[in-house]
UniProtKB/TrEMBL annotation:
<comment type="pathway">
    <text>Hormone biosynthesis.</text>
</comment>
<keyword id="KW-0479">Metal-binding</keyword>
<dbReference type="InterPro" id="IPR050231">
    <property type="entry name" value="Iron_ascorbate_oxido_reductase"/>
</dbReference>
<dbReference type="InterPro" id="IPR005123">
    <property type="entry name" value="Oxoglu/Fe-dep_dioxygenase_dom"/>
</dbReference>
<comment type="pathway">
    <text>Plant hormone biosynthesis; gibberellin biosynthesis.</text>
</comment>
<keyword id="KW-0223">Dioxygenase</keyword>
<dbReference type="InterPro" id="IPR044861">
    <property type="entry name" value="IPNS-like_FE2OG_OXY"/>
</dbReference>
<dbReference type="GO" id="GO:0009805">
    <property type="term" value="P:coumarin biosynthetic process"/>
</dbReference>
<dbReference type="GO" id="GO:0045543">
    <property type="term" value="F:gibberellin 2-beta-dioxygenase activity"/>
</dbReference>
<feature type="domain" description="Fe2OG dioxygenase">
    <location>
        <begin position="159"/>
        <end position="266"/>
    </location>
</feature>
<protein>
    <recommendedName>
        <fullName>gibberellin 2beta-dioxygenase</fullName>
        <ecNumber>1.14.11.13</ecNumber>
    </recommendedName>
</protein>
<dbReference type="InterPro" id="IPR000595">
    <property type="entry name" value="cNMP-bd_dom"/>
</dbReference>
<dbReference type="GO" id="GO:0046872">
    <property type="term" value="F:metal ion binding"/>
</dbReference>
<dbReference type="Pfam" id="PF14226">
    <property type="entry name" value="DIOX_N"/>
</dbReference>
<feature type="domain" description="Cyclic nucleotide-binding">
    <location>
        <begin position="226"/>
        <end position="266"/>
    </location>
</feature>
<dbReference type="GO" id="GO:0002238">
    <property type="term" value="P:response to molecule of fungal origin"/>
</dbReference>
<dbReference type="Pfam" id="PF03171">
    <property type="entry name" value="2OG-FeII_Oxy"/>
</dbReference>
Length: 319
């Protein structure tokens, strides 16, 4: 555990113009950082938090009616469809809260509740997406990539295949249960960028390059950003996607950990490949083959276990 004393979570002040180099350094070293002074109104964050608590506090039978997560809907313990489990319940939604999401909700909870949820979620997603785009444009500036919206335009596209997830890690009622139970197993996020906000209950850990796990102290007023696999590919491996997990350590006996994550993804038809300006002839050849986001999702993401190294499947390096 000694190593934890030497790790300081990179802190990025979004309103600070000088933060671009630090931002890129954090993405290169850890693929992870914490954002403060983000300009997302606190009421937007807390309103969605309240909606989430209200949802997860419902009887299980009601929640199950908004499932299964195939891939969108309510899920309990099972993560994905390849045998992963965790001590978590969740709600996976499209970021535009599609009519299908809406219908599931309204048939279970009534139209008024479904409409209210849609409204709160839309407000949250638009503020967080704006912040994610700002971050991606700062990255493009610092890496001298033009146009500067090369990444952010994918999130802003009407067809963007972005996902929103609410995770609830309930406290265990059995004192004798194993400590550090896995809530959400280790993995990298496949999209471009993920923006996470949680309540003040700990559990999130990131893996450093040497494989050591570091606990990230929670902060309900801030956001935590993960570089996703697609951004690693587009930057030809310069920015690294972060391996992370959640341990359910049971330190909030009343409700447990609640997290909300926006996963910014490209349109399904988008071709993902290293950007030419980051693949200099003779210097750093392309590390990844080109793929469409649709193909990657179909043949790699949904065809893998949580902990699998999905980028190996598109790597041009022998391993
Ligand atoms: C086990 C799985 C769950 C997951 C799809 C997958 O087959 C592998 C990647 C998993 C992940 C991790 C990040 C996000 O939470 C997620 C929504 C995603 O895009 O990839 C989940 C998938 C899921 O829960 O469906
Ligand atoms: O719930 C959390 O804090 C993180 C979960 C996560 O990494 C994910 O849903 O992809
Ligand atoms: Fe994740």
């Amino acid at each position: 555990m000694a190593i934890e004393q030497f790790f300081t979570c990179p802190l990025i002040e979004l309103s600070e113009p000088d933060s671009k180099p630090q931002l890129v350094k954090a993405c290169e070293e850890f693929g992870f950082f914490k954002v403060i002074n983000h300009r997302v109104p606190i009421h937007v964050m807390t309103r969605l938090g309240h909606e989430a608590v209200r949802f997860f506090s419902l009887p299980l039978a009601d929640k199950l009616r908004t499932g299964p997560p195939d891939p969108f809907g309510y899920g309990n313990k099972k993560i994905g469809s390849n045998g992963d489990v965790g001590s978590v319940e969740y709600l996976l939604l499209t970021t535009n809260y599609s009519n299908q999401d809406y219908q599931r909700f309204s048939s279970t909870f009534g139209e008024a509740a479904a409409e209210n949820f849609r409204c709160v979620l839309n407000e949250y997603v638009s503020s967080v997406r704006k912040m994610a785009c700002e971050i991606l444009e700062m990255v493009a500036d610092e890496l001298k990539i033009q146009p500067r919206n090369v990444f952010s335009k994918l999130l802003m596209d009407e067809e963007s295949d972005s996902v929103f997830r609410l995770n609830h890690y309930p406290p265990s009622d059995d004192e004798s249960r194993e400590k550090n139970l896995i809530g959400f197993g280790e993995h990298t996020d496949p999209q471009i960028i993920s923006v996470l906000r949680s309540n003040n209950t700990s559990g999130l850990q990131i893996s450093l390059r040497d494989g050591k796990w570091i606990s990230i102290p929670p902060d309900e007023t801030s956001f935590f950003v993960n570089v996703g696999d697609s951004l690693q590919v587009m930057t030809n491996g310069r920015l690294k996607s972060v391996r992370h997990r959640v341990v359910a350590n049971n330190n909030n006996k009343s409700f447990g950990r609640l997290s909300m994550i926006y996963f910014g993804g490209p349109p399904l038809s988008e071709k993902i490949a290293p950007l030419p300006s980051l693949v200099k002839a003779g210097e750093s050849e392309s590390l990844y083959r080109e793929f469409t986001w649709f193909d990657f999702k179909k043949s790699v993401v949904y065809n893998s276990r949580l902990a699998d190294d999905r980028l190996r499947r598109v790597s041009l390096r022998q391993s």
